[in-house]
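Thread: quick sanity check before group meeting

JM: Hey all, I'm pulling together slides for Thursday and realized we never actually wrote out the predicted structure for the chain we discussed last week. Dropping the sequence here so it's in one place. If anyone has concerns about the input, flag it before I start.
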Amino acid sequence: MLSTASIQRYSISTIREEAINLVQIGVIALDQPLRILFEYLPARQWNLIECELERYDYLLRDRIIDLVGEVNWDND
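JM (edit): ok, ran it. Output follows.
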């Protein structure tokens, strides 16, 4: 289970952190669209998450890399 599952409001930094975590564990790839996040985040929060992304000019068709930038791998 993701660590932020109990948070009531997703900030852009929280969404970014979740995306980075999912990339690092290999569940999603940097070239996938942001909408892939909805498979891993609580359904009851989807509307709020989408609004937060739009607030920062992200569209669901934008790529994960657009949100997270470069991912630093600690175990390379």
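AS: nice. The radius of gyration is 12 Å. The mean pLDDT is 87.
JM: adding both to the slides.
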